[in-house]
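Page 42, continued from yesterday. The earlier attempt failed because a stray header line got pasted into the input along with the sequence. Redoing it now with the clean sequence only.
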Amino acid sequence: MTVSSPSVAMTTSGGSGADIAVRDLTKTYKGNVQALRGVSFDVAPGTVFGLLGPNGAGKSTTVKILTTLSRADSGDATVGGIDVNAHPDRVRRIIGCVAQQSACDLEATGFENLALQGQLYGMHGAALRSRAAELLAQFGLTDAAKRITKTYSGGMQRKLDVAMGLMHRPQVLFLDEPTTGLDPQARAEMWTEISRLSRDEGLTVLLTTHYLEEADKLADDLAIVDKGVVVARGAPEVLKSELRGDAVVIEFRSDPDAAALRECVASQELREVTVDGRSMRGRADNGAAALPGVLVAFESAGFAVASATVARPSLDDVYLRHTGHAYEAAGSQDSESAKENAR
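This time it went through. Structure tokens are written below.
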């Protein structure tokens, strides 16, 4: 099967100038499971946009709609100015998609995987071979080009997955949890390449992740989703700067009485205090100055402290601020994906 070779010139962004525009998407699965409850955001051309949230938040459902693999119950979405429902075939020609599960043929070589991908987009001959060689070099896979993919490490397979998504020079690249399961070195290498693609090649990237530090490191802009709604939207540094002061985190040796704990710190220089299991979080204008008094108060009240930290605001604090509960970077299968697969 072949399709016409894609052309970036054939597309134009919508009136907003966005490469991706999402308006009020809703999606409900069987059993009245609401995966999306009015999700909206725009992605500017040539940027890395992070769609951040714990497993089950609605990230994968959003990507499936934008990549024409699913349809929303209501709302509108365009990619490259093209309506995903009205012209799904045109959308597919201008996007690359790297799913959570590897798409590599483990019995084929690295070069063969890239060649097949190119052929699906109408590439052939010298142009195909040149593009495959370019991507193999770009991802440090030239020496492994003739090896079958099942001999690749996890990091190498993931690099090949991304290279396959880039084979036809897409306008927009979707990366769905691209570094899940990678070791720290492989993850850092992937971060470097994603940043380069946006910075040097002007590629628009939508990155879904449940790793807070990944979104903080890579995203020019982001949306944090929780239970099917966008709870925070903006550049990471802007979102963090809205949280005045320092984050103070206390870990106790056993689960404290939450009401008694809040009463104990009521007179201290802490605000926005939340208690989750053995952890207490709060904010202070000067965390280092406030911490000694807080620890003395806990000792006097009989609370056994295991550890205490003071840090500048993080995306974890942003999430907590907007949802009222701690971020859960669960490693299990995304429950909304399971619902979709079972449908």
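Notes: Confidence is low (pLDDT under 50) at residues 1-15, 329-343.
Reminder to self: strip header lines before submitting.
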